[in-house]
UniProtKB/TrEMBL annotation:
Keywords: Kinase, Transferase. GO terms for molecular function: kinase activity. PANTHER family: BIFUNCTIONAL UDP-N-ACETYLGLUCOSAMINE 2-EPIMERASE_N-ACETYLMANNOSAMINE KINASE, ROK (REPRESSOR, ORF, KINASE) FAMILY. Belongs to the ROK (NagC/XylR) family. This is Allose kinase. InterPro entries: ATPase_NBD, ROK. It comes from Paenibacillus algorifonticola. Pfam families: ROK. It comes from the Bacteria.
Length: 306
């Protein structure tokens, strides 16, 4: 029987899952609304039921389950510490609960780490140097990969770039702190801009129709500042950008890069940035979650035919 990992990507809007085999191929991709978990009095039990129902129809040998959460995760990578959009998971030992049911190793991580890992593996990027990922979706996600490992920090919660404070701002973030950067640089902020300034415009058409307006130029600048901050701190070898906002119709990538360059330190790193974009995909988080499990199990992804 062919070995596979069940990869799960739990986002703010959708839960995506699929079988990922050792050759990195995704099979039987499935998608559901995250709102189902958000509305449940027992979201962990509902998640177990969802995964069990999916696995009941799968063929092959399950060797691991791996999940990405839009959350901060405990350093031992077993407990979801804080998920502002799904507080029902806060402080739950997801690994222990799922291993008791499915009888295989279970892995969890922050979702943006899984997204960046998928890019690193599939692009065959080196395990030396510094690779940073920026993912602008509902919030502002950041992942930092240094010399073959994700930067975790003392408590396992490093790279919370969306929650650095902005001087002079005191609006309350969903995390409980005032003035977090993702209040002003995220998909949430873009939705506010639409409602306040372009109520008759569909959200997906904002940039194609109103890119040159002052409010959207200010928004692009707001995006660029935390990105340039990380660039100035780490001087990364590779800068990878993605997320739903980046992939909107007409999103002005060149304008964003101009703002990033404006804030990056001269002459370097500003004059030697290696910046690229991920392809728009519904499946990257699922595949990245599976890669996390395979890496943890010392089962490297094999090329087709191996």
């Amino acid at each position: 029987m062919k070995e596979f990992v069940l990869g799960v990507d739990i986002g703010g809007t959708h839960i995506r899952l699929g079988k990922v085999t050792r050759d990195g191929q995704l099979h039987e991709f499935h998608i559901q609304k995250t709102q189902l978990l958000r509305d449940s009095d027992e979201p962990l039990q509902l998640l177990i039921t969802m995964l069990g129902d999916y696995l009941a129809a799968c063929k092959g040998e399950l060797i691991a389950v791996s999940l990405g959460f839009p959350s901060i995760i405990s350093k031992d990578k077993k407990v979801v510490l804080s998920t502002p959009n799904m507080p029902g998971f806060d402080h739950l030992n997801v690994v222990e609960a799922l291993e008791a049911v499915f009888k295989v190793p279970v892995f969890i991580d922050n979702d943006v780490n899984n997204l960046l890992l998928q890019e690193i593996v599939d692009r065959r990027l080196p395990d030396t140097g510094v690779i940073v990922g920026f993912y602008i979706g509902t919030g502002f996600g950041n992942s930092i990969y240094m010399n073959g490992q994700f930067l975790r920090g003392k408590n396992g919660v490093a790279a919370e770039l969306g929650h650095i404070p902005v001087l002079g701002r005191d609006e309350l973030c969903g995390c409980g702190n005032p003035g977090c950067v993702e209040l002003y640089a995220s998909g949430m902020r873009l939705q506010q801009i639409k409602q306040e300034h372009f109520a008759d415009c569909e959200i997906q058409d904002l940039f194609s129709q109103h890119q040159q307006t002052e409010v959207l130029q200010q928004y692009l600048d707001a995006l660029s500042i935390p990105i340039a901050t990380v660039i100035n701190l780490l001087d990364p070898d590779y800068i990878i950008m993605g997320g739903g906002v980046i992939h909107m119709e007409g999103f002005p990538r060149e304008a964003l890069e101009t703002y990033i360059y404006r804030h990056a330190r001269k002459p370097y790193p500003a004059n030697n940035l290696n910046l690229s974009y991920v392809e728009a995909s519904q499946t990257s988080g699922v595949i990245g979650a599976a890669y996390h499990a395979l890496k943890s199990l010392n089962k490297p992804v094999m090329a087709l035919g191996e």
